[in-house]
Amino acid sequence: MKHVFCGLLTLLLGGAATAQTTTKTYSGTSDIFINPERGFSVDRIAYHAGEALNLSDMQSTRTAGYSWVRRIYNLQDFRSAAISQAYLDMVAADFGTARAAGIKLIVRFTYNWDTGADASKSRILGHIDQLKNVLQANADAIAYVEAGFIGRWGEWHDSTNGLDNTTDRGDILKRLLGAVPASRMVALRYPNHKKQIFNNYNALTPSEAFNQTDRARVGCHNDYFLSDIADGGTFTYGDDQAATRENERAFLSQDNRYVVQGGESGEDRPEFSSCSKSVAELRRMRYSQLNAYWHNTLLARWQTEGCMDEVKRSLGYRFRLTTATLANSVATGATFTASIKVKNDGWASCYNSRGVEVILRNKSTGAKLVASGGALGGSKDPRFWLGGEEHTLSVSYTVPAGTATGQYEVLLNLPDPQSSLRTRPEYAIRLANSNAWEGSTGYNKLGHEVTITAGSTGTAAVADGTYTLTARHSGKRLDVQGNSSADKAQVWQYTANTSSAQRWVVRSVGDGYYTLTHEGTTKCLDVDGGKLDNGVEVWQYEANGLDPQKWKIEPTSDGYYKLTSKASGKCLDVYGGPAATADYDNVVQWEYVGGTNQQWKLDLVSSSSARQATASATLSKGTELLAYPNPSPDGQATLRLSAQKAQTATVQVFTPQGRPAGRFAVPVTAGSTDFALPAGLAPGLYRVQTTLDGKVRRLTLKVE
User: Fold this and answer.
1) How far, in Å, CA of 383 to CA of 371, rounded?
2) At what angle do helices 166-179 and 121-136 cross, to 10 degrees?
3) Calpha distance 121→150 (Å, rounded)
4) Please, is 435 exposed, middle or buried when counting C-beta atoms within 10 Å of its C-beta (0-12, 13-18, 19+)?
């Protein structure tokens, strides 16, 4: 049975502007400017406790154009002892200093600097365990960590303790990966060590990228770049090993699509380090970082031959707006749409996660509307914006009812996702466009204004209540198999009847999104695993407040609506296309093309007050715990505690590891009480638990 394939309704960039939209073309710039987590870096070495970073020095470093410092910790005083508390305190203080100065740190621990011994394996593992807490607490100030610890300079060769073998290297690397925050990468000196340790000689694939497995978190730092045919042993030596070296370089180029590559050069050797050869190799290996002072002879050649400015511009990412098509006006309660193209002129992509927001800012008041998460579609993860590629970001954002009318300027914000840095412009990405950067906020101006007008009703598209949903093409209703109350029960279309299997409690959760709860249960209409693909099954699942259970309900024509998943941007669809009219035809998610199998009529069965009595049937007669927004974009969320009688509830928040993250005594009245969680939760999943009317209630809160 042929399915009607469909694409999200967005405006095509190549088309001419209409009265409803404007298509803009943007000018790039060749300016050299600072951006986070990329470019040249400088070194600062601590040999002993008491040699903490100096704030004035770090501020001057940033002013000089460096967004990061490679911080090397020489543990020579602790080869045979635990790291002292004074030294650990210095490391912790350094992260605070870096944060205050608006920079990040590349971190390496070693037991010598050129000459001297390293430490035993057991000592190294113990030191990593000691460092774990301070590293975990400072993910926001870490760009990445170099593997260190073993051998001369911590570069994994010439170990004085016999650690130059795959078993010991693997044990140390995996212990370090467990100590470093899961959101951060570890860079190895030699790419062949990664293959050997993980017994996997394949480069990372897109599906493996950024999944926080150990292998996906291991990059490379080449500390003898362009020194000879093998980069000082980075690749295999031997006049007869040219094919092997080429295979090794090919692996590294592909692997580095999704992991960090940094390093420093060797001495100038014209046969290897001319500008033409250097730039070609830097581009192929997707370099994000180089040492600004080593080696001075090679760097001088780049200056003399004229490619230094190109290197400064191209290390890491360099994102540039090319074109955008944007709506000229939108009414409250309606959808603002845009399609924005960004090209990466740099050699690498982002390797750490990055926020993406399209902001509408009131020109009179400065009030902001922020489109993020499910309001964005297309290519919305900058980590996949590879060097030389152009990507399209689509926007479909419902302007909330009650928004002040007027002129709003459109901006693109690429903030650091860490809550401590999210609003700091030093950590936002600047685009390589003329007259776009707004340094006071870290926003990039799109040079466009949109007029927001009052909607015809000023109300949500659908009022809260209990509804049946009827597919336009078949006249069959959205139905739960066997009226089941089980998780993962199948949802399909079925002939209309009076059972609660076809009744859905629709409830607004803000920003134009709704949950649909199977009447008489706590099971919500849910996308299997929050997957993004066409054809993914839609089922029912226990309410959890996450995006796969949030649906945007928007009118199409003649009283019908489309329902779009916040998690995927795909719409509620009867599988098989308009010809699929039989009972039991499955309901899935699919891109929207206006097919009648993707349009639904919502018929009100009972109002919001009636819904309240049924939606909570299994929640102890009205006892429930909800959170909104969920996911929370900034670590702030409001809990809604519903109870039958007045009481004081103890709300506990736990990290994914089960550690307490907050405990609050909340006075609860009979009915619903809202409680705002304090800001400051770092990105991740949290378990929230309380007891209401003697019943334990839990939910999962996601912080982005």
Assistant:
1) 19
2) 20
3) 9
4) exposed
Q: Within a 10 A sphere around the Cβ of 613, how many other Cβ atoms?
A: 12
CA 362 to CA 452: how far, in whole Å?
9
User: For residue 462, how far is the Cα from the chain centroid?
Assistant: 31
> For the chain, which residues score pLDDT lower than 50?
1-19, 457-459, 607-622
Using the structure block, give the residue that is written with the tokens 């006892």. 623
Architecture of the domain spanning 21-30+319-453: Sandwich (2.60)
The answer to whether domain 21-30+319-453 and domain 619-703 are alike in fold is yes
Query: Superfamily for 36-184?
Result: Glycosidases (3.20.20.80)
Strands (E), 472-619: 477-480, 491-494, 504-510, 513-518, 523-527, 538-542, 551-555, 560-565, 571-574, 587-590, 600-607
- What's the rounded Cα separation, in Å, for the pair 364 and 355? 26
Residue with tokens 């360099």: 318
pLDDT per residue over 477-535, tens digit each?
999 998 898 999 999 999 998 888 999 999 888 878 999 999 888 899 999 988 998 89
Task: Say how far apart CA 511 and CA 153 lie, in whole Å.
Answer: 53
Lookup result for tokens 């659908």: 462
Residue 104 gets which letter from DSSP? Answer: E
Helix (H, G, I), strand (E, B) or coil at 172: helix
Question: Edge-to-edge strand order for the sheet containing 624-628?
Answer: 624-628, 638-643, 671-676
Residue 665 · residue 652 · CB < 8 Å: no
Counting Cβ atoms within 10 Å, is residue 145 exposed (0-12), middle (13-18) or buried (19+)? Answer: buried
Per-residue pLDDT tens over the stretch 210-240: 999 999 999 999 999 999 999 999 999 999 9
- What are the helix and strand counts (H, E) for the chain? 11, 38
Residue 368: strand pairing partners: 361
Burial of 162 (0-12, 13-18, 19+ CB in 10 A): exposed
Give Cα separations from 389 to 344, 345, 352, 533 (angstroms).
6, 8, 18, 22
pTM for this predicted structure: 0.67
Encode pLDDT of 171-221 as tens digits. 999 999 999 999 999 999 999 999 999 999 999 999 999 999 999 999 999
Q: What is the pLDDT of residue 18?
A: 37
Q: Residue 220: exposed, middle, or buried by beta-carbon count in 10 A (0-12, 13-18, 19+)?
A: buried
pLDDT digits (tens, 9 = 90+) for 110-155: 999 989 999 999 999 999 999 999 999 999 999 999 999 999 999 9
**Where in the chain are the domains?**
21-30+319-453, 36-184, 465-613, 619-703
Residue of 564, 572, 530, 563 lying closest to 547 (CA atoms): 530
CA distances from 236 to 145, 201, 452, 553 (A): 25, 15, 62, 59
C-alpha distances (whole Å) from 114 to each of 37, 137, 151, 359 are 27, 30, 9, 50
CATH architecture of 465-613: Trefoil (2.80)
Does the bond joining 295 to the residue before it have cis omega, within 30 degrees of 0?
yes
Residue 15, judged by CB atoms within 10 A of its CB (0-12, 13-18, 19+), counts as: exposed
Burial class (CB in 10 A: 0-12, 13-18, 19+), 169: buried
The yes/no answer on whether domain 619-703 falls in CATH 3.90.1010.10 is no
DSSP state for residue 306 in the 8-state scheme: T
